[in-house]
Fold this sequence. Notes:
Blueprint: H1 3-17, H2 23-26, E1 29-34, H3 43-52, E2 55-60, H4 63-73, E3 81-85, H5 87-95, H6 105-110, E4 123-135, E5 159-162, H7 167-180, H8 182-194, E6 198-200, H9 203-212, E7 217-221, H10 222-231, E8 237-240, E9 250-258, H11 265-275, H12 278-288, E10 291-292, H13 301-304, H14 318-321, H15 323-332
Parallel strand pairs: 1-2, 1-3, 5-6, 5-7
Antiparallel strand pairs: 3-9, 4-7, 4-8, 4-9, 4-10
Amino acid sequence: xxxxxxxxxxxxxxxxxxxxxxxxxxxxxxxxxxxxxxxxxxxxxxxxxxxxxxxxxxxxxxxxxxxxxxxxxxxxxxxxxxxxxxxxxxxxxxxxxxxxxxxxxxxxxxxxxxxxxxxxxxxxxxxxxxxxxxxxxxxxxxxxxxxxxxxxxxxxxxxxxxxxxxxxxxxxxxxxxxxxxxxxxxxxxxxxxxxxxxxxxxxxxxxxxxxxxxxxxxxxxxxxxxxxxxxxxxxxxxxxxxxxxxxxxxxxxxxxxxxxxxxxxxxxxxxxxxxxxxxxxxxxxxxxxxxxxxxxxxxxxxxxxxxxxxxxxxxxxxxxxxxxxxxxxxxxxxxx
Length: 336
Ligand code: FE
């Protein structure tokens, strides 16, 4: 027996001895294109490989890089699963024909209907709430109520916003267009613009500016605040759950879909189903401070300190359906 033959024999014996790990010998793999670069290093993928023997190979980039690569490669792509942040990005990928519809009772059970594509081409993995953030030193929660009320003149010069070309705010406006109609959303954004908001190019910088006293209120995703509080206990910013007597807080997802030309479709589906399982949801929540998409899982203890809230269940697909209208609306009212 040559050394190579011996190694192969030893591997087969190992595979027989370790149920569930046969795959290692056959090198099962799933290729993931991800525009969440930090997902690649997350323990949840190592856990998937440990359980299934399926290796996870990543190509990471920003959303445009990943989208353009997937589109340019067409049927030749190596990608089996696309992971992205924001339903607006996933909706665009689905519309471009890059994702395949998936019928999976597991995904249907793990992911509530408003957090996945009505045509089953993408599914939420984690939830982020985009709400009002305020200085705990200079603002009382009783002064806050709705997103629209940030247009009250009392917030003039005290309000911070992301730029309107950021997908998070495009999706926020797009969802509201579906929920409230364009005229009402235009009124909300006009109110903000009249308050001469300070425009930021990142949610974290906006939160730091509240802490530093440059502004007093703003709108960001929940996990950025949780990360800052985790790093700097006593960070003087808190979330205010907006619109609780109305439609509720705007929520969005990070999510994934099996690609239209997946070569390892079964493995991609296995990974997607695993990511929405209670075990994986806890690992993801521990790493990112996002809310679980699976309603059977309780959020990270740090998020429990934020309290509970009513979320708008309009359906995250609205972020894509009304994205173009949201961009036009922002232009029209001079929201940079
Ligand atoms: Fe983000």
